[in-house]
């Protein structure tokens, strides 16, 4: 059975958006499909989805375009403390925007290449667009280039309305309950 090429969007303040996209990637891989994950804003190579590329290649590829550090949204504070987990926050720089443009360019090369994947995941592209690191119109222009048999998944905490409107399927991930202390379990949160 061939796909018709749809755009799926997972956004919201709850955890599990990337995990949901990776679940669809696993399903796709199970059918012998080629999957490419492009991560905006992410740079840490110790995550399970990054390490899995060694095992799942050549059908599964992942490329990161983030820069070290957590980017703050707004002016309040320079550090975050969540249940004992502390991280320094930094402001958006021109380098972040250049890296995101490289991610969009790479995605375009993947989409228009000789052997495009059946599934492309643009992880954290919604947050990058919300923060103005990439322009929503540029993301939409990229999506218009998708071949008919390619599905795309977009993830990110906050999704601009234009991306929500463009997607075929939209799921909002909301936190209903979480522990007060920060939980970071190998193989679950990363």
Protein described:
The chain is of the alpha/beta class and 190 residues long. It has a single domain (7-66, 94-172), classed as P-loop containing nucleotide triphosphate hydrolases (Rossmann fold), CATH 3.40.50. Helices cover 33% and strands 22% of the residues. It has a six-stranded parallel sheet with strand order 3-2-7-8-1-9, sandwiched between helices. Strands 4-6-5 form a three-stranded mixed sheet, with no helix packed on it. The N and C termini lie far apart (33 Å).
Main features:
single chain; Rossmann fold; 190 residues
Short description:
With 190 residues, the protein is an alpha/beta fold.
Strand content: 15-25%
Rg estimate, integer Å: 16 Å
Please write the CATH class name. Answer: Alpha Beta
- Summarize model confidence as the mean pLDDT: 92
Strands of the widest sheet, in order across it, are 3-2-7-8-1-9
Q: Would you spell out the secondary-structure blueprint of this structure?
A:
Blueprint: E1 7-11, H1 17-30, E2 35-39, H2 48-56, E3 60-64, E4 70-71, E5 79-82, E6 85-90, H3 94-112, E7 119-123, H4 125-130, H5 136-143, E8 151-156, H6 161-166, E9 169-172
Parallel strand pairs: 1-8, 1-9, 2-3, 2-7, 4-6, 7-8
Antiparallel strand pairs: 5-6
């Amino acid at each position: 059975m061939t796909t018709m090429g749809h755009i799926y969007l997972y956004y919201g303040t709850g955890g599990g958006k990337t995990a949901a996209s990776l679940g669809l990637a696993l399903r796709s891989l199970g059918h012998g499909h080629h999957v490419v994950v492009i991560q905006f804003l992410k740079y840490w190579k110790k995550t399970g989805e990054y390490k899995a590329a060694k095992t799942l290649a050549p059908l599964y590829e992942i490329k990161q375009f983030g820069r070290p550090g957590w980017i703050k949204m707004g002016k309040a504070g320079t550090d975050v403390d969540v249940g004992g987990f502390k991280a320094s926050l930094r402001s958006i720089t021109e380098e972040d925007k250049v890296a995101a443009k490289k991610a969009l360019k790479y995605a375009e090369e993947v989409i228009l290449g000789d052997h495009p994947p059946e599934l492309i995941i643009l992880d954290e592209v919604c947050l990058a667009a919300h923060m103005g690191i990439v322009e929503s119109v540029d993301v939409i222009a990229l999506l218009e280039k998708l071949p008919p048999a390619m599905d795309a998944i977009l993830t990110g905490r906050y999704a601009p309305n234009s991306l929500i409107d463009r997607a075929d399927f939209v799921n909002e991930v909301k936190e209903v309950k979480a522990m007060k202390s920060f939980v970071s379990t190998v193989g679950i949160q990363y």
